[in-house]
Design goal:
A six-stranded mixed sheet has the order 6-7-8-3-9-10, sandwiched between helices. It is α/β, with parallel strands linked by helices. About 40% of the residues lie in helices and about 25% in strands. The chain is globular and about 55 Å long. Bound molecules: adenosine-5'-triphosphate and magnesium ion.
Length: about 250
């Protein structure tokens, strides 16, 4: 379980989150929507304890992480894997080495076991053929797949955190990544691995998430399912999801 309780964080003069609160279970499929600079990436960093709030509490698995030591936080981070914004692969390492890097960091596997595990992970994201290519030789969608495989190599997470998983991809490739996100969270709650995907791509969010949070001015302005979001009377959210509303109309 994740709980934000009145979380406030500022950078210099700028207050990014203001007494923001929400609760989520690890098996939930959540999209956090919001404009650029509204604090979406900041929320993910707070969950991982990479940032600490100025005020308020963040509870993960019944433990308050806001006062934890770095060693305790490392254990908390094992609950999650994160796919950073833009994939962020190591440019000088090939696909194999990018994924193996995390296994070398986090496990004591022997080289032949590492190779087996890298192949298994690449197969899982359907990109095994690219094993010896360099990041620059991959398309944006392939890079995103490798980034997802790499994040899964870090640990067997209870929840995956995606930062803008489809931003910058063409519609078909984005659709592909959405399918992969759904596959990795297959099954029924509470046994499945959930995710939090932060994104401003509402149509992609609608393809993967069951619950939607809309962040505006440092607060959660909306929290509900797709149907509720489409029927929202929040003017800003309505404009934000306009694309979705137009698509909805065309189906009628
Ligand atoms: N480490 C930092 N130091 C100073 N300012 C920061 C830092 N991290 C974030 N900010 C500021 O906090 C605000 C929120 O940043 P954040 O990256 O969380 O936004 P975002 O919603 O993820 O935006 P985007 O959609 O563009 O990725 C921005 O104004 C940003 O400049
Ligand atoms: Mg961001």
């Amino acid at each position: 379980m994740i709980a934000f309780q009145d979380v406030t964080i500022s950078f210099g003069e700028k207050t990014v989150l203001r007494e923001l609160s929400f609760q989520a279970e690890f098996h939930e499929k959540i999209a956090i929507l919001g404009g650029s600079g509204e604090g979406k990436t900041t929320i993910l960093k707070l969950i991982l304890g990479l940032l600490r709030p100025d005020r308020g509490r963040i509870i993960i698995d019944n433990q308050d992480i806001t006062t934890m030591s770095e060693a305790e936080l490392r254990k908390i981070r094992m609950n999650f894997s994160i796919v950073f914004q833009e994939g962020a692969l190591f440019d000088s390492l090939n696909v194999y080495e990018n994924v193996a890097f995390c296994l070398r960091e986090h496990t004591s596997l022997k080289e032949n076991e590492i190779e087996q595990e890298v192949r298994r992970l690449l197969k899982r994201v359907d990109i095994e053929d690219a094993i010896y290519l360099m990041p620059e030789e991959l398309s944006g969608g392939m890079q995103r797949r490798v980034a997802i495989a790499r994040s899964l190599a870090a640990c067997e997470p209870k929840m995956i955190l995606y930062d803008e998983p489809t931003t910058g991809l063409d519609p078909l490739t984005a659709e592909n990544i959405c399918s992969l996100i759904n596959e990795l969270s297959e099954g029924s709650p509470p046994d499945r691995k959930g995710f939090i995907a932060v994104t401003h791509k509402v149509t992609d969010a609608a393809k993967v998430a069951e619950r939607f949070l809309f962040v505006k001015d440092g607060k959660i302005e909306f929290d509900g399912n797709l149907e509720e979001m489409i029927r929202t009377d929040n003017g800003t959210l309505k404009r934000f999801i306009n694309e979705l509303l137009i698509l909805g109309d065309s189906h009628v």
